[in-house]
Write a structure and sequence with these properties.
By secondary structure, the protein is of the alpha/beta class. The protein contains 15 helices and 23 strands. The chain is globular and about 85 Å long. The structure holds nicotinamide-adenine-dinucleotide (NAD). Nicotinamide-adenine-dinucleotide binds next to helix 8 and helix 9.
Length: about 550
C-alpha cells in the first residue's frame, strides 16, 4: 500500500473498581467460579500447535488454597526446547518482512481482546493462579498489559520515523531492522503484564521469540498465548515453552542464533544467564542483547516535614499490596523520630493490623497468599532468625500459616542498625523495615540509605520542605531508576513512569517506553548516491 500510516494515539486503559453492585464485579466473580471449577491442561505452544511437555508434570495451584489444583503443566524436554528455537528461526524471515502496520494491528487487536471479551478470564486467572486481589489483577493483567500493547505500537512508530540527514545529491535512510537471531523471553510470576510485554515487545519490532513463563504464572500465561493466537499472530512468532528454566536455557543459550534475552525476575537468575552468554560468546553469530529487570530493595525516606497520614498510607500500601511481591514494594523506610514517636508508629501499626489476607475470591480481602512454598519458607526462616536478634524488633506481624494457603502476615521490623540485612536483602514478601533517626540527622541518613543495598530500582522521599526534597533527589540520584516525591514507589503506569532500575536491579531499559524497543532493533544505514563522482584524483594533487 502506498501511504505512511499514523498509528492510533494510545490512552491509558480506564481501571475498573469492582465495587459492590457494579456489573464488572458480578461478571468477574462468575468467571472466578467457572475457572476454578475444573482442572486445565497447561500445554506449550510451538509453531502454532498446542503440545504437551514430555518432562515432569507440575501442578499449578491457588497459592491461597494450595490443595486446589488449577491445572497441570509439563516441563519441556531438551528436544522440545530445540523445536521452539527451530520454530522461532523458521518464522523469522516472513515476520521480519511483514509491513509494520500488519504486525502492529495484531497487537492492537490483542489489546482489544483483553480489554473486552478476555478481560475477566485474564483477571480471574491472575487472581487464582498468582493470588492477586481484584484491584491488583485489574491494574496488571488488564490495564498495564493493554497499555503495553497500545503504547508500544506508538513508540515503535516513533523509532521508525527516526531518519538521518541527507546532503545534496544523496539520500540517507535508516532501516530499523529486527536484531539478528531470535529472542529468549523469560518472565516472572508476579505480573501477567510483564509476561505479556517481554515476548510481544521484541515481536512487534519484527523479532521471533521463545518465551518461557514462570510455572507459577502458567495459568494466566496460557490464556495470554491463546489471546495472541486469536489476534492473528502467525505461527512460530512467539513460542511458549513450559517448565522450570535451566534445561530449556541449556538448549536456548547454546544456539548460535541467540540474538537477545528479555528477562524479568531475580538478580541471581539474570546473572546466571549473563554469565552463560559470556561463556558462549565466541559461538554466537552476533553479540546477544541482554535486557533484564531484576530485584529491588525499594525505599521511602521521610523528612520531619512530611505529612504523617500520607506517609503511613503510602508505606502500608507500598509494602503490603500484592503481599509485597512487587519488585517496587517498599521494603525499607527511614522515619524521623519526631513523627515516629508522635503518632506515625501507631498509625502504621493500626493500618497494618487492619490489612486482611485471605482467599482472593472473597473481595473483602486486601490481598492473598505468597506465591509458593519456597517463598513461604524463606519468610518464616527470616522470622526465626529475627527472634534472637538484638538489633531488630518485629513490631507487627512476624507470623505465618500454611495450613490452607501460603499466608504470611504483614510484617514491620524496627531495626537499630542501618546496615542490618533488613535494609539490604530483598525478601519479596509482605515485610518492611524501619530505621528511626534523630531529626537532625536527615542528611546523613539519606547518604547512608543511598548505597547500603545492592539495588537501585524504586524509592522516594516524603517531605514538605523543598530543600529537603531537592537534597534527597540529588543524593539518591543513582539509588533508584524510578523516583517518587510524596508518593509510594509502586504502581508505575505505562507511558507515564517508564519503569526500570540500575545497579543490581537491571539494565534500566525502561519497560513501557521507546528505550526498551530500541534494544530490539539493529539499524542499517543506507546511503544512495544520485551523482557518484567521475574523477578519481583529489584537488590537492594539482
Ligand atoms: P525468578 O528469577 O525465580 O524466576 C524468573 C523466571 O526465570 C521464571 O520464569 C523462572 O522459571 C526462570 N528461571 C529460573 N532459572 C532459570 C534458568 N536457569 N534459565 C531460564 N529461566 C530460569 O523470579 P520470580 O520469583 O519469578 O520473580 C521475582 C523476582 O523478579 C524478584 O526478584 C523481583 O524483584 C523481580 N522482578 C523485577 C521486576 C523489575 O521490573 N525490576 C519486575 C517484576 C519482578
Amino acid at each position: 500500500m502506498d501511504a505512511l500510516f499514523t498509528v492510533p494515539t494510545p490512552k491509558n486503559e480506564p481501571v475498573n473498581t469492582y465495587a459492590p453492585g457494579t456489573p464488572e464485579r458480578a461478571s468477574l466473580q462468575a468467571k472466578l467460579s467457572e475457572l476454578a471449577s475444573k482442572e486445565h491442561d497447561l500445554d506449550m505452544f510451538i509453531a502454532g500447535d498446542w503440545r504437551r511437555g514430555e518432562g515432569e508434570a507440575i501442578k499449578v495451584v491457588q497459592p491461597h488454597k494450595h490443595s486446589h489444583v488449577l491445572g497441570v503443566t509439563h516441563a519441556a524436554t531438551s528436544s522440545q526446547a530445540a523445536q521452539a528455537v527451530a520454530a522461532a528461526k523458521g518464522a523469522k524471515r516472513t515476520w521480519a518482512t511483514m509491513d509494520f502496520a500488519d504486525r502492529a494491528s495484531i497487537f492492537l487487536r490483542a489489546a482489544e481482546l483483553i480489554a473486552g471479551p478476555y478481560r475477566d478470564a485474564l483477571n480471574a486467572a491472575t487472581m487464582l493462579g498468582q493470588s492477586k486481589s481484584a484491584a491488583q489483577a485489574e491494574i496488571d493483567s488488564a490495564c498495564e498489559l493493554i497499555d503495553f500493547l497500545r503504547f508500544n505500537v506508538a513508540f515503535a512508530e516513533r523509532i521508525y520515523r527516526q531518519q538521518a540527514e541527507s546532503s545534496r545529491g544523496m539520500w540517507n535512510r535508516t532501516d530499523h531492522r529486527p536484531i539478528d537471531g531470535f529472542v529468549y523471553a523469560v518472565t516472572p510470576f508476579n505480573f501477567t503484564a510483564i509476561a505479556g510485554n517481554l515476548p510481544t515487545s521484541p515481536a512487534l519490532m519484527g523479532n521471533t521469540v521463545v518465551w518461557k513463563p514462570a510455572t507459577t504464572q502458567q495459568f494466566a500465561a496460557s490464556f495470554l498465548m491463546e489471546i495472541l493466537a486469536e489476534a492473528g499472530l502467525p505461527d512460530g512468532v512467539i513460542n511458549m515453552v513450559t517448565g522450570p528454566g535451566p534445561d530449556i536455557s541449556d538448549v536456548v543459550l547454546a544456539d548460535p542464533d541467540l540474538g537477545g534475552i528479555h528477562f524479568t525476575g531475580s538478580t541471581r537468575v539474570f546473572q546466571h544467564l549473563w554469565k552463560t552468554v559470556g561463556e558462549n560468546i565466541s559461538s554466537y553469530r552476533a553479540y546477544p542483547r541482554l535486557v533484564g529487570e531484576t530485584g529491588g530493595k525499594d525505599f521511602i525516606v521521610a523528612h520531619p516535614s512530611a505529612d504523617l497520614e500520607q506517609l503511613a498510607v503510602a508505606t502500608a500500601r507500598g509494602a503490603f499490596e500484592y503481599q509485597g511481591q512487587k519488585c517496587s514494594a517498599v521494603s525499607r523506610t527511614y522515619m524521623p523520630r519526631s513523627l515516629w514517636e508522635n503518632g506515625l508508629r501507631d498509625r502504621l501499626l493500626e493500618i497494618t493490623s487492619q490489612i486482611k489476607y485471605g482467599d482472593v475470591s472473597d473481595f473483602s480481602n486486601f490481598g492473598g497468599a505468597v506465591i509458593d512454598e519456597r517463598a513461604y519458607n524463606k519468610h518464616t526462616a527470616l522470622f526465626k532468625r529475627l527472634a534472637d536478634d538484638s538489633e531488630a524488633n518485629v513490631i507487627a506481624g512476624g507470623t505465618a500459616d500454611d495450613s490452607e494457603g501460603y499466608f504470611v502476615q504483614p510484617t514491620v521490623i524496627e531495626a537499630t542498625n542501618p546496615e542490618h540485612e533488613v535494609f539490604r536483602e530483598e525478601y519479596f514478601g509482605p515485610i518492611t523495615s524501619v530505621y528511626v533517626y534523630d531529626d537532625k540527622d536527615f542528611d546523613s541518613v539519606v547518604r547512608q540509605a543511598a548505597d547500603v543495598a545492592p539495588y537501585a530500582l524504586t524509592g522516594g522521599v516524603f517531605a514538605n520542605d523543598r530543600e529537603a526534597i531537592a537534597g534527597a533527589m540529588d543524593e539518591l540520584r543513582w539509588s533508584a531508576g524510578n523516583f517518587y516525591i510524596n508518593d509510594k514507589p509502586t504502581g508505575a503506569v505505562v507511558g507515564q513512569q517508564p519503569f526500570g532500575g540500575g545497579r543490581g536491579s537491571g539494565t534500566n531499559d525502561k519497560a513501557g517506553s521507546w528505550q526498551n524497543l530500541v534494544r530490539w532493533v539493529s539499524p542499517r544505514s543506507i546511503k544512495e548516491n544520485f551523482v557518484p563522482p567521475r574523477e578519481w584524483s583529489y584537488p590537492h594533487q594539482g
